[in-house]
Inverse folding.
């Protein structure tokens, strides 16, 4: 699955990009960020393509991983869901209930898969506890 990464900060660099680049079945193919130079540098380190146009970015991927503040994530995630892209969301998904509800409606209405990235959720000790 072709993943795009939204964001270029610490977590995008240290967690999201390396995980997407090394997970079987996933390929980090595209990066978009509010700072085009940072997006270009991050993309280059992982053999991906940087985009400065969000709609062109969406056209290049099957799924989008988010590593941006919630006030940035929610409107972009809604656009991605409405474009039929699966979502790997950061927490919290939005800053207010209305925007979170709008995101849920976009996901439900488009039929895409969505998952909120919780750092320790899939560690074996947590899996067994749950």
């Amino acid at each position: 699955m072709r993943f795009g990464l939204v964001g270029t900060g610490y977590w995008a660099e240290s967690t999201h990009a390396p995980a997407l680049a090394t997970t079987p079945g996933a390929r980090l193919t595209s990066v978009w960020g509010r700072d085009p130079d940072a997006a270009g540098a991050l993309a280059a380190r992982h053999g991906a393509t940087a985009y400065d146009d969000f709609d062109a970015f969406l056209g290049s991927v099957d799924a989008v991983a988010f590593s941006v503040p919630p006030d940035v994530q929610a409107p972009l995630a809604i656009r991605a869901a409405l474009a039929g892209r699966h979502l790997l969301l950061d927490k919290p998904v939005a800053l207010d209930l209305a925007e979170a509800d709008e995101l849920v409606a976009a996901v439900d209405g488009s039929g895409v898969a969505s998952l909120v990235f919780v750092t320790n959720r899939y560690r074996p000790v947590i899996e067994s506890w749950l």
